Amino acid sequence: MHSLRETQRAFGIAVLSGNAACMAALVREDGLSAAERVRIYVNNSRIGFEQALAATYPVIQRLGGAEWFTQQARAYQLRFPSRCGDLQYVGKRFPELLQAELSGSAYAYFADVARLEWAYQESLVAADGADFDPSHLGAVHETDFARIAFIPHPSLRLLASDFPVLAIWQANQATAAPGSAAVALGDGPDRLVVIRRATHVELRRLADADFALLGLLCLGISLGEAADTLAATREDFDLPASLRQLVALSYFSTTEVRAAGTAAARHQPPRSTP
């Protein structure tokens, strides 16, 4: 007698591997063999998984071609089978697979394009955030300004890449003009922000200094500490100009003034890097 857990485990192995041998003693044939019955679930599982992955990574599918993408989807499912009932999260680790498979090749940029597509998906379903009111900064006493922590909008994601991934992403949209897919890989690097607006997900390049400041603030580092860090490494860093730019672009939900000695509280997942 097999326990329910043992039966479920055997069924999962059979579906993922396509080999129904482990289910032979557990399935009543009744007109269909165990292999035939399991094959129905195998096909449904693979097709559903591939369709969910393709919906998340349409640019990667277009870049690599349908046949190559199907092969990668199968390899990915075997290595990272879905452990969640929500197919939205199926593709979370796909960039990791592409990084391992394509690093050092002419297609190494695929991994960063995939990171951009995943950032888009995360931003799309992220929680709503409050609208930041810049006038609140005027209420902060000047002696407390260095201890301000800027809380990023929940849908904000950052991506640093050595490649021109935004141009690649734009050129491979279904609505892109014919002949626009030629992008020189040497046109990078890109420092990108992905954030959900009221009607769309926005993708924008930032200047290096602005991106560096935003990255530190997203880690929960206070404004004073972030300014000191960047001033020590960038002779031309202009804190007021960078901060005005980030505030104007509405990348934050709110602020808080940290007590002296308070450790940074991280509010965002780590940014994607090559």
Structure description:
- The protein is mainly alpha-helical and 274 residues long.
- The mean pLDDT is 87.
- The protein has a domain at 126-274.
- The protein starts with a helix and ends in a 17-residue tail after the last strand.
- The radius of gyration is 24 Å and the shape is elongated.
- The protein is 45% helix and 10% strand.
- The chain has ten helices and five strands.
- The strands form two sheets. Strands 2-3-4 form a three-stranded antiparallel sheet, with helices on both faces.
- The chain has helices at residues 4-17, 34-56, 58-64, 66-79, 94-102, 109-125, 165-171, 208-218, 223-233, 239-248; strands spanning 148-152, 157-161, 190-196, 201-205, 252-257.
Keywords:
274 residues, mainly alpha, two-stranded antiparallel ribbon, 10 helices
What is the mean pLDDT? 87
Low-confidence stretches: none
The largest pleated sheet is described as:
3 strands, antiparallel
CA gyration radius, whole angstroms: 24 Å
Strand content: 5-15%
Biggest sheet: strands side by side, in what order? 2-3-4
Structural class: mainly alpha
Shape: elongated
Q: What is the helix content?
A: 40-55%
Report the count of strand segments. 5
Series of secondary-structure elements, N-terminal to C-terminal: HHHHHHEEHEEHHHE
